[in-house]
Amino acid sequence: MSKKKIALLCTICALSVIYILQLALSNSGKAKKIVSKVEPDSIRIENISESVDLHKENDEWVIGNEKLPVKEDSVKNMINAYKNIRVLDTVSKDTSEATLSRYGLLNPVRVTFAAGNKKAPVLLVGKASMTGSQTYIKFEGKKEIYLCAANLNTYFPVNKNDFVDYVIYKTNISEVFKIAIQHSNGNEWAIEKTGEMAQVMWKNADNTNPVELDSAKINEWISSITILEAKDWADESVDYIHENSTIVTINAAQDVIKIEINPYKNGYLCTSNKTPYLFTISKEDGDRFMKNLNDFVSESGAQIMVE
């Protein structure tokens, strides 16, 4: 057997032993929880080069001074992870630079939870263990370095894009019963649903022009616009020209969704009643709304129009 194969086998054996030991620790009765009772209304996550600030405003989590909307699940998961840290072992009480570096705690991710003026102990998150399923951590001002269950780095990313909620609206095709579109050139049209369940059909909302529509084609189109995600949030300094907008109104169940779509650079600049912020969407997403009634007229309907 070659030396390379022997070295590889030794490495595999060593990793296996470490993995078995960590599993044993995680399943043993020695594991203890560090539980925080602080219900935070602000969270700061930072490393040596960047930071993310989240805070509650009117019971909603937002990011930074821009007050961008936050994915609620990401905040809930982060709070739960902090409030229920499971310590598997104390690996060191040495705070020398070499030891801190070994565990990724020389330049850690620093997590601060606060409720008003009350702060929870600042959590310092180091690197993941060799198996990737545990993390080395310590608390600011304390000597103990712990090995804890779970890779906490996945819960505390230092990038606002991991928290920003880009979903503008989300609905279900079965709930949509009317769509109206007003183009910037003055062309307006609307369709509305008739019938129930398997007998659902779509008709022109303008009863003066009872043209026959292709309901299957309309359903396919609606399924492509039941969710809209922003590509990015626009800078507040951007001027929005309403006169150039295509206005889309979607009635779904008890909800009314309104979007104004304006050509902008290589995509579209938009406003909506679902967010107070200007946002951009891709050209592909915006083009889905740039429809005319003739796009959905059935072959027989087209013949009726000609007559």
Structure description:
The chain starts with a helix and ends with a helix. Helix content is 21%, strand content 37%. The radius of gyration is 28 Å and the shape is elongated. The protein is α+β, with helices and mostly antiparallel strands and 307 residues long. The strands form 3 sheets. Strands 1, 2, 3, 4, 5, 6, 7, 8, 9, 10 and 11 form an 11-stranded antiparallel sheet that branches. Strands 15-14-13-18-19-20-21-17 form an 8-stranded antiparallel sheet. The longest helix is centred in the first third of the chain and has 25 residues, at 3-27. The chain has helices at residues 3-27, 72-83, 97-102, 215-223, 283-287, 299-306; strands at residues 32-34, 42-46, 51-57, 60-63, 68-69, 85-92, 109-115, 118-119, 123-128, 134-139, 145-149, 167-170, 176-182, 188-194, 201-204, 227-229, 232-233, 246-252, 255-264, 267-272, 275-282. It contains 6 helices and 21 strands.
Treating each run of at least 4 consecutive H or I residues as one helix, how many helices?
6
What does the average pLDDT come to?
Answer: 86
Taken from the alpha-carbon principal axes, the silhouette is elongated
Percent range of helical residues: 10-25%
From the helix content, strand content and strand pairing, which structural class follows?
Answer: alpha+beta
Q: Tell me the number of strands.
A: 21
**How much is the radius of gyration in Å?**
28 Å
N to C succession of SSEs = HEEEEEHEHEEEEEEEEEHEEEEEEHH
Report the sheet-strand fraction: 35-45%
| Uncertain residue ranges | 13-29, 303-307
Outline the biggest β-sheet. Answer: 11 strands, antiparallel
N-to-C CA distance: 87 Å
